[in-house]
Structure formats: C-alpha cells, structure tokens
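Notes from the 1:1 (GR / supervisor)

We went over the backlog. Supervisor wanted to see one worked example end to end before approving the batch request, so GR pasted a single chain during the call. The sequence is below; no edits were made to it. Supervisor asked that the structure be written out right there so they could see what the output format looks like.
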Amino acid sequence: MKRANRNGKPERENKRTQSTKLYGSKLTGRSKITNGTHLLPRVDGRSIWARRLRDLIALHVNDYGGEGNISEAQRSLIRRAACLTTELELLEVQFATNGGAKTWQLDKYGRAANTLRRLLQSLGLERRAKEVNSTYDQVAEDVQALKDCGFIDALNDDRDGAAP
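Structure output shown during the call:
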C-alpha cells in the first residue's frame, strides 16, 4: 500500500536516477554544490558574476588537465582564486568608470591581489612558454602547399587590385 502525503493523496514514486540504478538506494549527504548542479547555495547562476566565476573555475581546472586530475583541495583553492579574480575585475571596472581609485580602494585591491597571488602560487600555476615546434623546412612546406592550392596567388591578386 502506498503512503499518503499530508493532503491525503498517495505519494508518487520517485524516478530512478543514476545513483539509484547503481547503488539501489538514493545517495544521501551530497549537496548541490558537490554534485555540480549549483555554483553557490541560493544564488542564481545566471548572473554576470556567477557566469564569470564558473568560466574562471573551468579555465583553471583545464590548466591542470581537467576534472579528473585535481584533488578536492585544489578544487577548493581554484574556487577561491576564481572568486578573488572576479572581485578584482569588478574593482577594476569601478576604477575605470570613476576615473581612478581612492586610497582605501587601492589598499583593498592590493590585499586581494596579493592573496590571489599566494593562492595561485600554492596551486603551482605559473607562466609557461609556448612550445613552437615549427622548423624553417616545415614552414616552407606549408607555404608551398598554399601556393599549390592557389591560395597565395588569390591573395596576391586581391592585393594587386586594391587601391594604395
């Protein structure tokens, strides 16, 4: 017999989810933040601030090679770094629209920027030079291929017909 809710109507059966299919019962104790459905509790994730935060988190996670390559501690530090970056960007907008910053605003900005630097250092994020593997021979082959398909000739024809 089905249980009745407070209105006296029978309770509907819960739809089987992925977790109930795997484990037989619903997993308990997981928040919406943990399972990735919410960015922050009781916050609309569609605001400009929330979208920028989500973008920065994704960019930093990708710097580490994706979701599977980071620990929860790193994920936590990444969230804090992304939040500080978002707030620093908002302060920069205020500085630009107000024609500068007051002393107390610069102090707040400097402290936040130093905190961000320390977070990023603890994460181990550092600037890396981009590897360029092209040799002169490879570039010459690419140029020849463009000539063979007629792309470079068409580009030169366009330039010849243009007014100086």
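Supervisor's comment: The chain has a mean pLDDT of 79.
Batch request approved.
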